Amino acid sequence: MFKRAGPDNIDRARRLRRDATNVERRLWWKLRELNAQGYHFRRQAPFHRYTLDFVEHGARLAIELDGGQHASPKNAAHDAVRDRFLANEGYITLRYWNSDIVENIEGVVDAIVRELKTRPYRPPPGTLRVPTSPQRGR
Length: 138
Hints:
Strand content: 15-25%
Number of domains: 1
Distance between the termini: 29 Å
Largest sheet: 4 strands, mixed
Number of strands: 4
CATH topology: Endonuclease, Chain A
Order of helices and strands: HHEEEHEH
CATH class: Alpha Beta
Number of helices: 4
CATH architecture: 3-Layer(aba) Sandwich
């Protein structure tokens, strides 16, 4: 069942959006261009106890940008737990190093589009499929 993110998670997501790195901003502008193809990405989106760097809920696709700190065993283990959690929710996670964006952003975006095309569209979490109560008298 869909549960709205708490105020702490929302504040954290807003702060992460405001303080985005240059690499995050570059990828965000490219992902926004995909709106013309019918996709709708969100950035720094609260999802359960996590904040996803970028997510397209309809395709159940999360994209994470990793800096050097993610190479440490502790952070790699945390990322693996997070990826398993997302997989249990029906999401696939694509991970890219910041250097991938700097060196080959077009290749990264092409890989994301290829993955999007393989994913079936499902309504985002929390979307009502059938109205729960009809509007009477209207």
